[in-house]
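Example 3.
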Amino acid sequence: MIKNKQVSIWIESLSKLLNPDNVVLIDGSNEQLEELRRIACNNGELTKLNEDKLPGCYLHRTEINDVARVEDRTFICTPTKEEAGPTNNWRDPEEMYELLYGIARGSYKGKTMYIIPYSMCPIESDYAKFGIEVTDSIYVVLNMAIMTRVDKKVLEKIGDSDNFVKGLHASCEIDQEKRYICHFPQDKTIISVNSGYGGNVLLGKKCFALRIASYLGKNEGFMAEHMLILGIQNPEGETKYIAAAFPSACGKTNLSMLVPPPSYKEKGYKVFCVGDDIAWMRVGQDGQLWAINPENGFFGVAPGTNYKTNPNAMKTIMSDTIFTNVVLDKDDNTVWWEGLNDNYPENAVNWKGELWNGKTSKEKGAHPNSRFTAPAKNCPCISPQFDSLYGVPISAIVFGGRRARVTPLVYQSRDFNNGVFVGSIMASETTVAASGKVGVVRRDPMAMLPFCGYNMGEYFNKWIELGKQLGDKAPKIFNVNWFRQDDNGNFLWPGFGENIRVLDWILKRCENKINAIETPIGYIPYTKDINSDDLDIKKDTLEYILGVDKELWRQETLRIEEFYKMFKGIMPIELNQELEQLKSRLQIN
Ligand code: GTP
Ligand code: SPV
Ligand code: MN
């Protein structure tokens, strides 16, 4: 069935280990996927939704204990602990292989082993990287077929080489005590057991395109980043691209496909989505920074998605989409989630699979981390460059997080190294995207804390090196925070489509078109330069969220200093200098 030498050796050994009843090679054809959808509907893995209202759409529910990434059970298994660094969970590779093979042994008995060859990036791109995921879950096959480029040609590209990422997923008993998401960067291997949830099992996504790829990029000269990529076309018809890193569930998908408010549309602004979650970046032959989205679909947060907040996402998920852990409206066999609309379904099934009445129930119907998996091609504002073999040139890098206080709506770093510092001190309130406490402020450098596949100190050095390589062609670096709150917990900035007003300022700054106010942390806008025409926001509110509270920043600096201690001896000297300079600008010491 498989002629490739290295691939068949590996598959053979897995076959012996897992002991499946059948083996199926996935070729990406619609006939084959359609057959799998039929089987999954018969065995209850999927529910077919209303074909008139949601053509080609399905619903899936995961186990109740299996609804988010599990960071405390995610491991980087490098030969030494130092290689994984101070922020990753580390285990000895040999020990871990033994444990994982022990858990997976025989677990495909009575099941089918699906072999999925896939490409991250367009297959013909020089930047494409290939992977093969072995799984016992049809849900995984169907999601991978949306999120990546699953194609027979991938095996041709791999040939007899061992140049592919080996991914093994075994559902086992979905036992959370035996759940492990493990990465062996040196072996280009990922093993995931006892989960069926998104980021834990769609191995092309976080496991490969971020953790393994960041490690490969360290040696091959590219960066794998947790970033959206968007293009903004101005009234003159020029398109500039922005890459932005926000932690999970902090607004990447929303920003990447934002719909400009009427006044911007009238002027002729357009936004194009290149990617909503991951960017691979490198210095191009022209000396500029280029970014490519390795994915082929969106795995987006459902709650809060509606025609007002994200109309492009709504249109994207109207067909050929898999919904996970949302509400099933039994009356018309469609889906619903909190924040979709006020038509609370009364005759419904909640994410746990229980009968649920949205009018009377106090419990939420959809899981807060419920998701949609949709093809990028469905997105009305997908960029004409989406399938570009080279990606797009980046004019600005934006970091951001969810902070009720402290971080202003937007500020610009002083220069590239200062921008790397700004990325390194990112902090954000934790969200439902990972298991654990929600709403706790934690440091999440470049939104990569859970995704960097090697020592984060070394990773910071790679960023500093990148700046040196780019020289005066380096993009400008900014920080944004859409989530400032008042004392009652209300958001002060309208967000969503209105965020273009901030992007507009960012691009004007990149083109040196306007001045800004220098503060100890960087440059902030003059209030008049954030266009607030026809925006429902008071001038003093805008001033407040744009402001830099020096006392809060002095306290913040102490926390940054504490955080930096973790990287003693591995932190680039440039970043320690940046911290000292910030302290002196804030008159600390
Ligand atoms: P991951 O897929 O986990 O990486 O998340 P993401 O970064 O793509 O976040 P997403 O765009 O899905 O948004 C997460 C949540 O934040 C959703 O509930 C959104 O409705 C909400 N959100 C996004 N943008 C904004 C904004 O500008 N303002 C406010 N207040 N909420 C926002
Ligand atoms: C994230 O948590 O950043 C996601 C969803 O994009 S997952 O695929 O689960 O990682
Ligand atoms: Mn994400």
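The pocket of sulfopyruvate (ligand 2) is lined by residues 69, 198-199, 205-206, 248, 277, 299, 433 (CB under 6 Å). The chain has three domains: 5-54+70-221, 225-297+384-549, 300-373.
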